[in-house]
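User: Here's a protein and a ligand (zinc ion). What would the complex look like?
Assistant: Let me lay out the input and then the predicted complex.
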Amino acid sequence: MTVNLKEKRALSNFLELLAFSSVKKFYPTAALKYTQVSSIENIYDFLLDCVDSGELKIAWEVKCTNENMICARKINDVDDKNTILNEDVMCDLCGHEFTVSPLDVYPYFEITNEYRELVREDLKKKRNRLKISMS
Ligand SMILES: [Zn+2]
């Protein structure tokens, strides 16, 4: 399953907007919310492709699993999730101790500096073209 043409365009626009903004990181659910692409799996696949092609970087966040008080405090950020799986961690907020399983690790994405610069350069060029055509 892949995103269709319209969805792909919406996702590309979303990434460009992020590249202009000061947003440092975002979750796949944010892309789902802003683009109205129907499937989170498709969005995730698209974002992974963008990691391959250099627009994005993927990283992982471990959240507290204490369900009694629905803590969900962020415990750790790692670039490679394998470095944290099966590690014993403790939440500094609620004191809950647990062993990290794949379900406790959440992906997020960051805009790479390279992509950010490309998008900003393109905008400058567009503005210049606009100036020329209006004068
Ligand atoms: Zn906690």
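Summary: The chain has two domains: 1-55+112-135, 57-110.
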